[in-house]
Amino acid sequence: MKIIVIGSVAAGTSLAAKARRNTEDAEIVVYDQGKDISYSVCGIPYQLGGEVENIDELTPRDAAWFKKRYEIDIFTEHKVSKINHEKKTLEVQDLISGKTKEDYYDILVLATGAAPLTPSPFDQKQYDNVFQIRNIQDARDIETFSAMNQPKKALVIGAGFIGLEMTEQLVRKGLEVTVVQLEDQVMPPMDPDMTFRVEEHMREKGVNLILSDTVKTIDGETSVEKVTTTKGVTIEPDIVILSAGIRPNTELAKEIGVEIGESRAIAVNKNMQTNLPDVYAVGDVAESFSVITGKPIYRPLGSTANKMGRIAGDVITGGNLEHRGVLGTGIFRIFDLHVGQTGLTEKEAKAEGYEVEVLYNIKPDHAEYLGGKELIIKALADKKTSRILGAQVIGRGGVDKRIDVMATAITFKAKAEDLFHLDLAYAPPFATTKDPVLYTGMALDNALNRNPLMTPADLVHRQNSGELLQIVDTRSKKDFEKAHVKGAVHIPLAELRERSQELDKSLVTITYCNKGVTGNAAQNVLLNHGFEKVYNLSGGNKNYQSYLKMMRLKNKH
């Protein structure tokens, strides 16, 4: 059996290695048109920023290593230009010599990855100071340019993972950075009320963040000297980083009749097989599916690519591994903030038809007396089944372990109450006695049963629609006078039992404090005193004021 793999980054090399571990009988050949193999794309921003000392650390293995270790032939700078699947042959061009040869296969694997999008008007001409981040050569080119030109001002197009990571690292290098984002928020896969906190942090760090805008015109012949946005903003960058997204490299697949899925990536089954016999697809060129909905989704990440490669390598050599889908789990760092997400966002859950309970949980990541810092968890549960559907977490520490616990729980279909009963590690340097994950489960379970929550968005919507609401601020007079919810009456928690008769038991009532805990206590008092419908404002006044600020800025722009 001869296996030919087109592509040698995460998925292709993972597949080849697993296939070889399963059998010594197969001939395994890998072709890649690039110079480097098995490299870390995700590590490139950190190498450019100086956190990774040497670029070679991102390419720990070469073709010779794979040949010696696995008896796998990897040909770099070799482009597969044509495939004849009926004959099971392909044409391969040596990009160094220019010579073309024919090769044959029994099994073909498409691991062709994805290519960065080049947005207009940057696609009209080549500029020597415009770069993309997709492979090791890109990093080398940026390093060479920076050494020769010492750029002081950078323009980053796009605010996804790579755009934000590059922004952080360019600021770290001392550059003045402007980010232009087409959508009205950074990280569009997340909910805007969470990413607003990221946007504020970026501005605090000196980043010029331009949302809901795009570059319209470019001045300069060989270099980008000035750009003007659709809204008339002018920027004069020394270097431009394009990070406007990627698209799967499906050209070869389409030519031989491989089916393309809803996400525009290659449609595969759980064994990573395409619609054509003996043709597989793995990595950033392949479609995945949601663990929650079962529907096709495209979430290209190195971790998923490695997993897909291992699965296909096993299946091809007689194994029975299956791809079990993804949750879209991701995490990034932007200056002092760590930001993670998993599962469905609020907007995605509602689009899927779920009626969701939404909790904003604001707690320290570990004991405050040992330097614990604020952690914000936005978690969703399905009101019908109590199943956890998704979570987004922002903080200065402890984000990764919380998002991983949530991802694990969602994968195994945990309900809100299940989170509370998890036996998580506790010691003051690492967690609080009631870990933020445990508290999330407890509060969501309460909300699904006796103590409903109201989000700031829902409260504002109800107020704007003229609904008669009774809002009770349970904090101190000092906090109330500093900032409070529109239309709220001030009754501190300690006085609420005695003064509850001042309130109308039949009206929809919302209690709140600064972050949510005292508001919940007040909610219980009123429910126990016979109030008919009492909500706790999720995330308290702090979350409410953040939401108002976000809306003011969005409406302004």
UniProtKB/TrEMBL annotation:
InterPro entries: FAD-bd_OxRdtase, FAD/NAD-bd_sf, FAD/NAD-binding_dom, FAD/NAD-linked_Rdtase_dimer_sf, Pyr_nucl-diS_OxRdtase_dimer, Rhodanese-like_dom, Rhodanese-like_dom_sf. Pfam families: Pyr_redox_2, Pyr_redox_dim, Rhodanese. SUPFAM superfamilies: FAD/NAD(P)-binding domain, FAD/NAD-linked reductases, dimerisation (C-terminal) domain, Rhodanese/Cell cycle control phosphatase. It comes from the Bacteria. PROSITE patterns: RHODANESE_3 (PS50206). Keywords: FAD, Flavoprotein, Oxidation, Oxidoreductase, Redox-active center. Residues 465-549 form the Rhodanese domain. Its cofactor is FAD. The keyword Oxidoreductase applies. Belongs to the class-III pyridine nucleotide-disulfide oxidoreductase family. This is FAD-dependent oxidoreductase.
